[in-house]
Amino acid sequence: MYWLIALMTFGILGLIACGFYFELNPRPAQAGRRWFKPALGTNLALFVGAEAVLIFIGAQDVMAATEAAAAGGEISIGMGLAIIGVGIPTALSTIAAGIAVGPIGAASLAVLAEKPEIFGRTLIYLGLAEGIAIYGLVMSILLLDKI
């Protein structure tokens, strides 16, 4: 199981290092960038495929493992996966709320510069976008009750 964690960690660190390298050493425009998009697409496809295979192999290892929980209060592998699964709706809905609030907030500030009397309406739109995160939190609380 440790080899899986190490391999995934090295893959993620490699992607981060490539991002920093391309950010710090941009290629000049006249050098030709026709290779960039296909290479990036190929890298992304290979990375996503490899991560899917690693997760599939890791899930089989976890499911095949014997119960590691003792009476000493340790958390079993299944309980740990369940707790991670409970946190996923909150994480994804918070990311979605951030993506939604960004453009709505920018647009509301632009509108307020022209018409300050519609401040209340812009707050309603921002509240609706923030509601996405609250829905994810409610789902996590409901799922946590089932554990």
Count of alpha/pi helices: 4
CATH architecture of the largest domain: Up-down Bundle
Distance between the termini: 25 Å
Looking at CATH, the homologous superfamily of the largest domain is F1F0 ATP synthase subunit C
Whole-number tally of structural domains = 2
What Rg is obtained from the alpha carbons, in whole angstroms?
23 Å
Query: Main beta sheet, described?
Result: none
Kindly provide the name of the CATH class of the largest domain: Mainly Alpha
- What value does the average pLDDT take? 79
Described by the principal axes of the CA atoms, the overall outline is: flat
Indicate the percent of residues in helices: over 70%
Proportion in β-strands: under 5%
Order of helical and strand elements: HHHH
According to CATH, what is the topology of the largest domain? F1FO ATP Synthase
User: Poorly predicted ranges (pLDDT <50, ≥5 residues)?
Assistant: none
| Alpha-beta classification | mainly alpha
Q: What's the total number of strands?
A: 0
What would you say this structure looks like, in words?
- The structure is a single chain.
- The chain is mainly alpha-helical and 147 residues long.
- The protein has two domains: 65 residues; 74 residues, F1F0 ATP synthase subunit C (F1FO ATP Synthase, Up-down Bundle), CATH 1.20.20.
- It contains four helices and no strands.
